[in-house]
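Regression report. Comparing outputs from two consecutive submissions.

Submission 1:
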Amino acid sequence: MKQHIRHTALSLSAIALVLGTAACNDQLDLKPITEITPDDYYRTADQLANYLNAYYNSQLVNPFSGQMYHKGGFNAGLGNSDVNTDLYIQGAGNTDWFAKDHRQTPTGKVLQSEYENVRVWNYFLSVSKRNHEAGIISGDNNLIENYIGEGHFFRALAYFRLLAQYGDAPIVHTVLPDQDEVIVENSARVPRNELARYIIADLDSAISLLSDRSLFRGQRVNRECAALLKSRVALFEATFEKYHRGSGRVPGDAEWPGAKMAYNAEKVFNIDSEIDYFLTQAMDGARLAVGSTPLTTNSKVLQPEPGVMDGWNPYFEMYAQLSLANNPECLLWKEYNKTHNVTSNVPYYIFAGNNDGMTRAFTEGFLMTDGKPFYASPLYKGDESVDNVKADRDYRLQLFLWSESTLKTAEVFATPTPENSLFGVSDLTNTIIEQRNVTGYTPRKYFTYHYPITVHAEEMACPIFRIAEAMLNYIEACVEKNGAVDGVAADYWRQLRTRAGVSPDYALTVASTDLSQERQWSVYSGSGQVSALLFNVRRERMNETFNEGLRFADLIRWRSFDRMLTTPAMPEGCNFWDSMWKNDRYKDANGNFSIVCDGSTNSLLSGPEQGKYLRLCSASLAGANELKDGYSWTEAYYLYPLGAQDITSASPDRNPANSMMYQNIHWAPEGGRYAER
């Protein structure tokens, strides 16, 4: 039986998961019902809370990466969550996603294994709602309803993970009996638009039951948090259906695999109507999430004075303080607390390096303070140094990117020198991989000048849901729905830009934008460019939420990887070969340039013959480097494949031809085979 933790209402750091063990059913990996908890357990509000507490850490996750907050151990947490996008890279790139013939149809069950999470919430909701209606749960009624609302939220989140990865998926409303014929019957994949509507209905139930953020000060799921997730789900589905229509990934497409299933035979799909519905839901959820809550203040101070650790810029420190209980912008946040043995090393890795770096596309995507892109503004000072790249730029770039003159510690030295007090140029040559930067652009988000936290076991809080995302969701949904910015969207956009120290005149930005000079992949949806207005909405989203785990999902829903089907994309770093290479950090004891950049397997950097910007995948030009020509894409990767056993075990006779499940387009039904295209 699961072990239960005493209810700790105000500390997610106290939440842990202790898994029971049991044999699993062949169909949907279902544990016997008694392996969850006995029916007679759910009799007090605290017991409901304890059940929920056991799952916060394991199920509050990003739909794609499986990560929603900082992980324990030695890593940069959300600081590296934009890996596999145009903004950020680790090492020399990821062959699993961006080289041909690496991802295969799994041999086992992958889709069905996700339903263990769904079963957890179906069971909790079934028993807790039954007992509540019968009046046998003691405690504060508001708390009881709040905890039932949390169950609806987590079930919606579990289904969103299925939607985001697989598209169509079964909807299981209740705890099914452990009988093969019942489970096979319930294995029918529901078209993705119907699944998205079910998720939104679950979130509406959560919203109606949850208390607002003030009850637990952002340390438990709350009404505004559920509204934000509703806007995220609805926007994801609306834009996925819009930009993937005709690909075979949207219900009603000519090549949609679900069309061959008898249970879909009578269904008619009006995708235009569905897109409009989801955009409306996204706007409604976003407005509820934002309410009248103000954004966190940006003092425009870029770094503290020596000796000052805290209190110098609330916006920077929203990502770098012990508690976010008093920061209303953070609708949900995670506490790290040594007392509960929940720590991370994120600030240290942000400071020391993580074999990573932001890209040229990232830095060039930020506006100048006059509201114009860098190529259209007289304020731009060039890119021969990172200081120059950041000068007169959006404060989000200035704050969250290290540069040569950035203070690297708040310690007070008897004899301050550039070596002991300033960051300097990025470390491109460190033989300790975890302490190396690979692009010359080192991320600074999640760093703290509170020295004991940075160096020792950290207790820094991590924001999970912020109202800034809700504002962005509203703006994007509004433009997608209406083709223009309404009054609410205009107000939100001006608030975000004003905090960022950028002219609030977004119309000036749109008029100054030349899409041919923009390097971000979000310029495109499919093979075509989007409008300058929509691109700038996407730009704002990147500027505000980078390294918060959203970018990969955004590029998926926008269908922004398509150009790489025919034209490889080469991630680039800083302008190294004009003048940065002359820095003493890159010289040996005799004053000679010491970095190997000859294209061999030992080469650390791309050479000047490849251009002045570091080309991150082609430092080595050896034949074994599959990414030396850049990133490519495989069309099948927009959806994950079902496992071969997902298909066979959903068949009454284990014959794939009779299965209630079908494979996603361009993936083979047999295990161990690469994507077809």
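Submission 2:
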Amino acid sequence: MKYASTQAITRRGILMALVMMLSFSSFAQAPVADSLSTESESRYNNDIHSFILHRLGQEVKQREKMMNKTVQHYLINLPNAEKLYDETFVRINSSVQEDTTEDGRPEINYVYEIAYNCHHFEGTEDDYPSAAYLWNSSNSCRAICNITRNMIQDNLSDIFAAGTRIEVTITSTTDAAEISHIPYRGEYGDYRYMPAVYNEENVRISVNQKEGITTNAQLAYIRAQSVRDYLDNNVSAIKNGNTEYFFTTKCFDMTGPHYRRSSLRIVVHGAFDAQARQMEARLQDDEYVDFNIPAIEENSNSKTYALIIADEEYTAPLPNCDFASNDGEVLSEYFVRTLGLPARHVKVLHNAGRQEIKDNGIRWLKDIITAQKGDVHIILYYAGHGVSNAKFGPYLVPSGVDVSKIRAFRSKTGNLPENINLKKKDAEKILSQCISFDTLTGWFNRVEALSYTFIIDAGFDGIQRNGKPFFTIKKETKKARLPRVRSDIVIFMAANPDKTAYSFIDQHHGFFTYYILKELKYTRGEATFQELFENVTKNQAYESSLQGKLQEPVMVIGGKLGENWGNRTFINN
């Protein structure tokens, strides 16, 4: 079976030749062929540069989501003496930052920020008591310090490599209460004319044990030093790094506990430099389906409509579904650019619940079919979690599923307990919020269209995309079977209902979605369904087996279609 059309191979060869002659200006220097115009060189360099920054940003945001979910669990399970006010929220923000080193070389940095805010100030007890300066005298500062330690150790150890240049900016504030004298016990030593920023001005601050604290500037500064002391003694990655501290202090012109706070901003210099260089080399080999998406004539596939459901974020304690959002975003680009669907013919629902899928997605498609008197081709795509019922019947698990009243999902840590096997009553509560294949296809009963194609990138065996346990429902039968569907529907499924559908971490996609996109890219959407399925099966099975998580897709074909399904294509002129 051919892997790609001659046209696609030729185009790919030209692109690779072009890209290999170009350089990612920030990280490599390579000669550019004289035949290339300066404008072309700049455009391709900018495309590569933008893609690398976008991909790194995706990785950072993926980690940010995971970390903030962990933060929620941490805050819920704090001891009563350390509990935060109900309206207090701790949030991690992270980003990729371009910069230059002191000798003018470009670098790509990682930025980590953590702070808290409160929706209602009255009666809060999270902030520093009026004259206190120790980090652990403020519940919120204690939480920020401990969360930062845990995040760096458990989620960011690869970014905080030993010897890395790190800048830590600690911001601490006071309210406007007048200070006469606060004893300073010298826990952090004496300071003489130390540089800091106070009320947005560069100042020098002195504090010593003998004279104590007599100004708000000193109090805010010592609060910041207390946080620094915690980081130095409890976060080995910061202690072992080439770390420099900066202190930003402020005195508000109002009084109240909510004006006495601390927050952190950490910059890891050059955190992504090596990765950027590796990505540039791989872009020259055209390895990323998210880059250089081929395009055909705009709006040329005007009879095709697509609904994309990308459910990545779930309510705790259910875990998120890694990369589902990116699956949906990139696939929508392929539908428009590579398959020629008009942009208005593609609808993307992110993190949609069952009712939203029905009201804003399925109804949209049905109205279109009715308006066009069935003269349309329909594509429905889903990326997210799945589960199978007692008889292995597959169900989609939409975002917003509420498991709070199910005892099996409760745990002391707040994380999803392992090996959850729900019995009948609990299973009914879950499945009533999910969407079975029978329901999904039944929504289109008596609604005739030229073709229906469903693409389902979800697993139903109780394992998440990342290989960790999800949950299962106690089975009444021992053998899984493929779902039955009405006679005019073709369903591409990522795996059998009793097999796992994994994510391709390196590519930021589900395995199944990645290889579908790869086929669409190299064939410019011209492959038949049979060619596409055979090539996806071959290449996905090979790569997933190398990674120790074999995954083979399956087809579910309506009875009326017989062998004709294989001749279908996504391009319907």
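Expected: both submissions complete independently.
Actual: both completed, but the second showed a warning that disappeared on reload.
Relevant detail on submission 2: The first strand starts at residue 88 and ends at 100.
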